[in-house]
């Protein structure tokens, strides 16, 4: 998506070779009209898949996932990072955050992920793929069909996408980065 | 907002006299088209105030705040609950969560809250008012003008709104609850 690549080039801040901050429109401050356009674009790529629900994880995935769900006219469920009080009523998975260097449990109420669902996972970033693997694990537990994942920005060099695609999973990305360093970003 | 009251009556789950779960459309699963209508309604109540930015706190405030910001055609910033790496670049405030019985620090990058802003705070719930007071504190630190707050559901009996209104703050609520118990919700 050219508009996204342009904004990453204009506003993104590369720290070292692995961290990209896009907090002017995606991760801290949100540009709601732009988020809506990105949501529409991701929704269109999965049109015809019969999606019945969008799944994301709090917090920064929520805005774009809501935009995708609005376009697809389906509900969105966001996995929570705090332990739920009644564990029997939720699907749970452990995810490791390389950014925060901690493991957190994400949970989704079973009632919001019935086995006859067709689920589209949406997230803002795909890097090592830990969050995405956790969400896939939860969909697997539910018995629902996974249509694939839609990602705003993928950092290809951190390999999370490659591992999941190798298993046959469809992943659509609006901007995929081959490599980067301060002042320079190479898109795929 | 009658549609919201109807959905709270139909789908809300009251636990004891203080906890209202509305996770079918607001807190865990999100109905994006309904969120958009609620955002439009809150935006209309603050039309003419010259709002330049919407402020909320992660995670469940993000969807409705994005909808309000979309209607007002301004950006939204969500306060983060994790400590930022560079404290000098952020405004910070401590908030106590009665639900989770813990104190967390919320932060907003100074660059997203300039002193000439006119800020509208948006959140999904107003109960004891801890999160709202923390957001007000951050706006005060920034020197920006606070236009007020727009809230989806207010639990009047927990008094957070009364304390802030007594200081002259404008708070608009889409559904205000006087009292409740399982099977019975009295709206103001």
Automatic annotation (TrEMBL), chains A, B:
Residues 44-155 form the Phosphoribosyltransferase domain. It is found in: Cytoplasm. The keyword Transferase applies. It catalyses: XMP + diphosphate = xanthine + 5-phospho-alpha-D-ribose 1-diphosphate. Its EC number is 2.4.2.22. Gene3D superfamilies: 3.40.50.2020. The keyword Transferase applies. One of its GO terms (biological process) is purine ribonucleoside salvage. Keywords: Cytoplasm, Glycosyltransferase, Purine salvage, Transferase. Its main location: cytoplasm. Pathway: Purine metabolism; XMP biosynthesis via salvage pathway; XMP from xanthine: step 1/1. Xanthine binds at residues 20, 27, 155. One of its GO terms (molecular function) is xanthine phosphoribosyltransferase activity. HAMAP family: XPRTase (MF_01184). Belongs to the purine/pyrimidine phosphoribosyltransferase family. Xpt subfamily. PANTHER family: HYPOXANTHINE/GUANINE PHOSPHORIBOSYLTRANSFERASE (PTHR43864), XANTHINE PHOSPHORIBOSYLTRANSFERASE (PTHR43864:SF1). Homodimer. Converts the preformed base xanthine, a product of nucleic acid breakdown, to xanthosine 5'-monophosphate (XMP), so it can be reused for RNA or DNA synthesis. This is Xanthine phosphoribosyltransferase. It comes from Heliomicrobium gestii. The lineage of its organism: Bacteria, Bacillati, Bacillota, Clostridia, Eubacteriales.
């Amino acid at each position: 998506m050219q508009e996204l690549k342009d904004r990453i080039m204009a506003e993104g801040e590369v720290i070292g070779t692995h961290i990209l901050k896009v907090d002017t429109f995606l991760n801290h401050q949100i540009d709601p009209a732009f988020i809506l356009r990105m949501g529409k674009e991701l929704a269109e790529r999965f049109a015809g898949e019969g999606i019945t629900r969008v799944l994301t994880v709090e917090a920064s995935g929520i805005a774009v996932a809501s935009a995708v769900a609005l376009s697809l006219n389906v509900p969105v469920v966001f996995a929570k990072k705090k332990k739920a009080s009644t564990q029997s009523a939720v699907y749970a998975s452990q995810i490791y955050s390389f950014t925060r260097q901690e493991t957190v449990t994400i949970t989704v109420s079973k009632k919001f992920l019935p086995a006859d669902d067709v689920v589209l996972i949406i997230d803002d970033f795909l890097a090592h793929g830990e969050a995405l693997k956790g969400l896939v694990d939860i969909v697997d537990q539910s018995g629902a069909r996974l249509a694939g994942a839609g990602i705003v920005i993928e950092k290809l060099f951190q390999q999370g996408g490659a591992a999941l695609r190798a298993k046959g999973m469809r992943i659509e990305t609006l901007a995929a980065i081959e490599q980067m360093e301060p002042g320079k970003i190479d898109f795929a």
